[in-house]
Design a protein that fits this description.
homotetramer, about 400 residues, alpha/beta, Rossmann fold, Dihydrodipicolinate Reductase, domain 2, 2 domains, 9-stranded mixed beta sheet, 6-stranded parallel beta sheet, about 30% helix, about 25% strand, globular, GFO_IDH_MocA-like_dom (chains A, B, C, D), oxidoreductase (chains A, B, C, D), Gfo/Idh/MocA-like_OxRdtase_N (chains A, B, C, D), Dehydrogenase (chains A, B, C, D), Gfo/Idh/MocA_oxidrdct_glycsds (chains A, B, C, D)
Chain lengths: ~400, ~400, ~400, ~400
């Protein structure tokens, strides 16, 4: 570990995602052999006290109050973007042009146009050995990575059905406070881009097929929320005093769309933060001619697999994805000792650093994320046009 | 039991549904106190030997080879229609006009026009105390009846989301033989009408709200199938010899649609016979502002209920719907001794006979079933029109 | 069906078990081809009005108020004993000696001595073509029958572990009323014989190995209960008025024992009616060198199977035991349409009538049931002797 | 964080447990506010190269090849013992006598006598503000901590039943190699002490009641194993070449015992590494007069709770233990984002450091662990004495 060349990281933002990324940067080299040694060199945030406290807590060596300073610093090799979507394009493009590798949280951008510019910048930079990746961290869940492996091995045969749900409930309370996630100018969209984007990426990645068209509806159940209140986790409790100001929700609360994939499969997607009782039910089911797979992030260490060849004694097999042969798992604990949410971020760092160290493009590239962005745009276009079928 | 006035039944058709209905007519009075005593008076079928054998096996006292004869007979009070959808309108209308009560399998008809005529006949007959019901038997599953009770009691609050899946896999094998279920002239539609209709009825009934509009896609994965073969259950093994003739599938294999319900809830529906590994997964989930419900017919004795008032220790509660207080259950076994598929048909008989005995309209009426038919038609219309939103 | 020779049944008792048996006698010939045609000829009970009402409701042609009359009647071929255990020996032996076949509810008797006499009578009668069977109906659950098939096929390898639980909760309420099930003079024992006997029989039958020794504890949590009250299902609500008399519980409320099986496997058993929330959790898990099986009657249509050969992608496979190839299932509904509690009794009739029709000994014989009785006795002996190991 | 006084840790051993503890020491201060700042000062191991590599990988500042040196060093405040059980007493007593706090892995010792001496040393040291804790880390699983909270709140009423299983399968392969865990001189016992000890501690802790007596059997299925081979995780693949030497297994492979708890509850325990398909199924179910709890570590973020007051609509409620109000959880991720195996160790550090910082005895104390040791000894004594009841 000590002899590896350093990879000096500068992170922008230090909220939920910042904490997860910090843990990953600290932890990855403790469990995996990496070609480069990550260093938590600097974190940037506009609030000087806030960023100082975060640096202490999360283990960053220095702070900046302007992300541009991170990019100017010579002692930073990689920019890790953990801010809302409206800032991604500017930061990422500046970083790439400055020769810094980039890890950018998802969704890649708030518009296809931004994503296209980012992809162009990424492809240009890659020619000079400067790489970028979009943070679709669910790809690094061992069970989903095993799902992809099964599809690639042909164990599902020809794929016919995809059903993807991402169900949360932290907005069910109509009085939970406004957040940047409900402000279209910052977040780009609501459930669609925040969680639906994960489903889209996972569905395309696991099946190895792109979505070619969609028909969609979007719904906003609660159109005004208290501007102040106690934000706990992603939800919380708004200020309901009679004169407390309320803000306007400008994004979708829920998105439903049907889809067709290249080559024939059809899919159905749903993303919502109002499915009371579902906390982080990122679910994916794929049915093929030979087998089926089912996954639910609320049981993240399990992949269910149905092998039709076992008929008439076939049944969904609950694979506890904790064997040393399973993706990422061998570097952790003995069989049966499950992983948690943050491991996806640690694995993301492992894959990113390994690719950079080996001089090759990490996945998902900005181009891969642009395809997701195009699906998001098609969904919004269809929804705005009486659900008419919209090509991606 | 012995003193109750008889209700003399004539059944048309004796295949899958005929066997289920026969068991129900035989069994209902053994476990429930009915105001009328069902008698299995006659069964009709075109094949004389077939219907004779079925009558012996299923317990019918006499046979007819023409359903018209059943209607002419004075000793028949009720016509039970268990034939494919293309025959429903003619039989049901003739029976009603002859003053016979009618139980008609679902979907009510193969077109809205037929369903409208049937409904008119039903409403006219009802004025003279002649009643009719459509066989949406899943309403009689105790867990779904309990779900409706919870909604009516306000335990879900205001409903926001409905997600309904009906997943089977008996057509996954591309070489399973043709059946009348794949012939639009007989069945009207494929997965949509056969199983999707159950989901539509259950969703509307449980929530107490009608669907007002849809956007849909339909897909046919396998367009030709062997005309001969070994039909086992609903699927089976086709004749694959090189010169075996093949027939054309003229219905949908899968249907996906989004929906809006009166009063605001949105829904997503999927029906397919290609979800490998899902055998009879008729699933319904409803999310409200106070609680949520989830049901899967593959665990038909369980209703999952989430009560937000129990937060932060809330969780989906797995109610084993076998308590004497639960719908229908008190007449069966002690707590914890689950029921099976056919009990829905027995309960259907109980509800039908009770309503007739009490001189009131049973539910679902033909009018209720007409509403389902209109949703089916809207789905087909949207699918044929680039998924454009279609009002019901 | 109509040409088969009749098998004229006389049933003793008409409570919970009587209703289940009646349904089975009525239903078996409707779904299965039997070599003999069961007829519900007569039912016996001491209360003239009660037995008359039961006969009408359950479909019996005639009644007797003394079981001895049933045995004397020439028009009875088989005696079906559905009374408490203290009556089994007398009725069964008299019936066998009178040349009547016998179906006797479990546990076979209230003592090993009685069971031995019954077995002797059964073996003597069998030489003359008069057969008997003990009603361990769980053997007829398709999932458990499939479990036995898997063991016989060697899919588990050498068996090492058995864990069997039978958990109910209908006595959790300390004020539920007394019943004959809590009176040792009638029931022989409590949870041990009532439900533990099922576990013992199932464990021995599925594994094909007898229990050779045990170490046990028995516990009675509630020693007095109201003598009057409202019995609902198996539990209910006692009369708690201050002067209401209370009776003494003379049986175990819970039994726990470890066991060794012939040939090496070890087992752990628990039976209780105080496992709050478990309604009819008759569970069996078997671990071998090649595979494992798990079953829970609360999901009676499912068998979980783990096949180590699939490692590292092995996992418990949830077999939905509703395929036509599965035991008993092909005679019922299409794949995915589950069965209920009472089907076990119908299958029991099928197996019994088929064996009698073919002139061979049905299983489980009284000798098989005697082995269960010996285990029950060994458990009681160990518990009475400081849990010291007790050979069976 | 930076202003807190340091707590300088010296760890002995660096295998499975060492890696888990190191991660915990590194991570705890990043997510929790601690009164003392842990420093990974030194790690000790006999193999100089091995310990050097481990220190680099796991993040320790210095190394020692003799644990006695750790104790001598002035710059060490706490000794963390991660070695096999036969070494615990000597190290722990020496450390305590030297004024170092001690965290000692479980089981506390290999005999009651050792555990008694350790407890005496701990109690003496505590008088001088030097504290010790035994590493029953499952207590720090949020779901189990919530279970204890429910019992303390009276939500279960009076407890009647405890059933505890700890099922693994890594020894199912009879050719997996010998390890120190199968050598009684190092490990003390087999499944009993390694995993059964966790069940015993959890059962006593959650219920708040000690076990007062047991009846037990122990079994060793495989008595010889290859001495060499490829150890993967806890199992692996032995060297099966014909002349490869084999070693003798001197511990139990499986342990089964019944138990009585102070105040009336009865329990049943099973620990095995031969339950094929069960990977880390540490399960605990508790039934009381008002409610029941069920937990399985294979779904470690879930606690199932049955509340009889909800009858007849009661059911086991699947609490996803990821709410900010749940033990430990608020310091991690938003609702619905589950934790993994290693979090228990991080929480253990949090509780230990907090107690030391506040000058109070952490739990479980050596005295608590001594009680577990006494149960282990009683189990072995009963098993050696024909399962005769053995007081603890």
């Amino acid at each position: 570990m000590t002899t590896a060349k350093p990879l000096r990281v500068g992170m922008v933002g230090y909220a939920f995602m910042g904490a997860a990324h910090s843990h990953a940067w600290r932890t990855a080299p403790r469990f995996f052999d990496l070609p480069l040694q990550p260093q938590l060199t600097a974190v940037a945030g506009r609030n000087a006290d806030g960023v100082r406290g975060a640096a202490d807590k999360l283990g960053w060596e220095s702070v900046e109050t302007d992300w541009r300073r991170l990019i100017e610093r010579d002692d930073i090799d990689l920019i890790d973007i953990c801010t809302p979507g409206n800032t991604h394009a500017e930061i990422a493009i500046a970083a790439l042009e400055a020769g810094k590798h980039v890890l950018c949280e998802k969704p890649l951008a708030n518009s296809v146009e931004e994503a296209e510019r980012m992809t162009l910048a990424a492809e240009t930079a890659a020619k000079h050995g400067v790489f970028s990746m979009c943070g679709f961290s669910y790809r690094r869940t061992p069970a989903l990575a095993l799902a992809k492996r099964f599809v690639e091995q042909g164990r599902l045969g020809e794929i016919r059905h995809v059903r993807a749900q991402y169900l949360q409930d932290w907005l069910s309370d109509a009085n939970a406070p406004m957040t940047w996630r409900l402000d279209k100018s910052k977040s780009g969209s609501g459930s669609l881009g925040d969680i639906g984007a994960h489903s889209i990426d996972a569905a395309q990645w696991v099946t190895g097929r792109n979505i070619s068209g969609v028909s969609a509806i979007l719904e906003t159940f609660v159109r005004e929320r208290p501007l102040a209140g106690d934000l706990v986790g992603l939800g919380g409790h708004g200020d309901l005093s009679s004169d407390a100001p309320r803000g306007t929700v400008t994004v979708d609360d829920a998105a439903i769309f049907s889809a067709k994939f290249d080559g024939g499969p059809i899919g159905v997607f749903e993303a919502t933060r109002y499915a009371l009782g579902r906390k982080n039910a990122m679910r994916l089911e794929v049915n093929g001619t030979k087998g089926s797979l089912a996954f639910d992030f609320e049981e993240m260490n399990v992949l269910s697999f149905y092998d039709a060849a076992e008929s008439p004694d076939a049944g969904f097999r609950r694979i506890f994805v904790t064997e040393p042969e399973h993706p990422y798992v061998g570097n952790w604990w003995p069989t049966g000792h499950g992983l948690g949410y943050e491991h996806g971020f640690t694995h993301q760092v492992v894959d990113l650093v390994t690719a950079i160290g080996e001089g090759r493009q990490p996945e998902p590239s900005f181009g891969d994320a642009l395809q997701v962005q195009r699906v998001l745009a098609a969904v919004e276009s269809s929804a705005a046009n009486s659900s008419q079928w919209q090509k991606v």
